[in-house]
Amino acid sequence: MENRYNIHTHIFTGNCAPKDFLQVGLKLGDGFSSFLKWLFLTKPVSWLIEKLGSVLPNKTLQFLKIGVMGSQTEVFGYLRNAYSQSAYSDIKFIALTIDMDYMTEPKRRPNTDFNAQIQEVLKIKKTWPNDVFPFYGIDPRNPDTLSLSRMKTALESGAFAGIKLYPPNGFFPFDPRLEAVYQYAQTHKIPIMTHCTRGGSYYIGKDVWPLIPSNPQSFNPNHPIMTKINARIAAYKKASNKDYQKNERACNLFTHPENYLPVLDKFPNLKLCIAHMGGDIEILGPQNRNRKHAQWSNEAMILEGNSRTWYEIIKQDILANYTQTYTDISYSLCDADCMKILAQDLQNQTIDPNRVLFGTDYFMVTKEDAELKVTETAHKALSNHLSNLMSQNNERYLFG
């Protein structure tokens, strides 16, 4: 029997996230989110949230229930148990760690720093060696990125199976400090998973613009797309809609899929997954039934100098031209309309069926629906393909 994998899960707890993280997850203000996160993580309140979450189906409550758990071990156990009585009881999990020490100002950094997060994940791997395959989070602002000593130890020991990037936390994928990461990954055929949606988590410090120079440094500075990237930055700074100067939208500058073209042209054999297919807003594009999202997609395309959505760029410029690249359906799989578009593209072969991966984005996706329910949404639309996405494609990406 073929192995099956959920390629995209998270098991970090609230203590691994910055003190003001809830302004992302629940759209709360800066100071209030810090207070509320502290309140939620106090023992009496976290106990109450867990108890209420066990009996009430409210989606926000379900998200918070997992976030206030006392350890990553508990979060992973909860995930594993969710599948234990299902048709996917044999599934294995890729746990994506994220270095969140630099996604805000120093005074609001996580209670549990990235190194402590990694140490607990190592223990989880020892407990469930055949069930969990962690990815090591990289942020170029972490001083260890220059030597890569901890990352190499984690990967070469066999405890970690890949590398995770999260650019909207405040860096560009072509950052010169990442060049050695890509070189190492390409040489050793290490898979990299990177975030690619509008929204999601993002840099939540007071002002993101000091991290976005007009002409950002690149290890491939003469690549022709850099001119367009610089023009995009200038367009955001001058946009009449001032929302584009705020962190939530400005961080899309870090996330845009064209940022990977300088990377892939220098490292064409890099095994890279552009996660989420660009996100539901970009998959549905201007035809989105949500009028606000449709307007946002159209407005952003014009501002960014594109006539295509991020999903189309991923399909046509990345998957079509670089043979070791992939995308996954995580989080986007909760939207049935997105899955119908993917099913049509798979049938029409406008996207290579061997380069799409199954993942859910646990536990972020619980804000939309329960883990197995979003899997069922994907199954209904992709019944002819889901087995391949879970098994052959995921295994090729991980170990091929």
Describe what this molecule looks like in 3D.
The chain has 400 residues and is an alpha/beta fold. 44% of the residues lie in helices and 7% in strands. It has helices at residues 22-25, 30-41, 43-55, 59-67, 72-84, 114-127, 149-156, 179-188, 225-238, 247-250, 252-255, 261-266, 280-284, 291-303, 310-319, 336-348, 371-381, 386-399, and strands spanning 5-9, 92-95, 135-138, 162-165, 192-194, 272-274, 325-328, 356-357.
Query: How helix-rich are the residues, as a percent range?
Result: 40-55%
How much of the polypeptide forms β-strand, as a percent range? 5-15%
Global shape: globular
> Gap between N and C termini, in Å?
18 Å
Computed Rg: 20 Å
Element order: H for helix, E for strand: EHHHHHEHEHEHEHHHHEHHHEHEHH
Using DSSP, what is the number of strands?
8
Question: What's the mean pLDDT score?
Answer: 90
Q: What is the makeup of the main sheet? A: 6 strands, parallel
Low-pLDDT windows of residues: 25-49
Structural class: alpha/beta
Number of helices: 18
| Strand line-up across the major sheet | 3-4-5-6-7-8
Give a short overview:
With 400 residues, the protein is an alpha/beta fold. It contains 18 helices and eight strands.
SSE inventory with pairings:
Blueprint: E1 5-9, H1 22-25, H2 30-41, H3 43-55, H4 59-67, H5 72-84, E2 92-95, H6 114-127, E3 135-138, H7 149-156, E4 162-165, H8 179-188, E5 192-194, H9 225-238, H10 247-250, H11 252-255, H12 261-266, E6 272-274, H13 280-284, H14 291-303, H15 310-319, E7 325-328, H16 336-348, E8 356-357, H17 371-381, H18 386-399
Parallel strand pairs: 1-2, 3-4, 4-5, 5-6, 6-7, 7-8
Helix pairs in contact: 3-4
